[in-house]
Amino acid sequence: MALRTILTAPDPRLKKKSLPVTDVDADVRQLMDDMLETMYDAPGIGLAAPQVGDLRRVVVLHIDREDTKVGPLFMANPEIVAASDEDATYEEGCLSVPEHYSDVVRPARVTVRYLDRDGQQQELACEGLLATCVQHEIDHLDGILFIDHISALKRNMILRKLLKARKEKERDAADGKPEAKAKEHAPAI
Length: 189
Ligand code: NI
Fold this sequence. Notes:
3 helices; binds nickel (II) ion; two-stranded antiparallel ribbon
């Protein structure tokens, strides 16, 4: 397994639509394993392949919290096949939008269909944080970030701050300063 670099907004690769996996072969399993390791290292509870610059429809998830324990899950070609009329609001974060959080409204419950790490088709009924996480990750596969669900004003403010933070990080790296690890508030997905 190997750690991969997590892209941060506004990287154009995060806005691209990913392509379906035709076969869950050794190469896809390697991607899944690398993504899981990268996600644990970040740390985060979900990661989509485009976040590491790979435009294939692959997602990994692992939620280990008091109210929700699920995973690790490996999903190829995940799709929402049912969604509740009822909505839920969660404060979302994202490893590609570091240190920014915002409330996002999504269906409270969804059913996701996907191919697992063995290429077997699975269906999973999701609610709570898992439902949020699955929808957030599938959005990534369609080039959508959680900040695309909030007001343009707030989105642009976050993108400006991310660019500024990136420039500061590059300047610190040039000065030989060690990289500071981000503090997490809500889980980053
Ligand atoms: Ni994310």
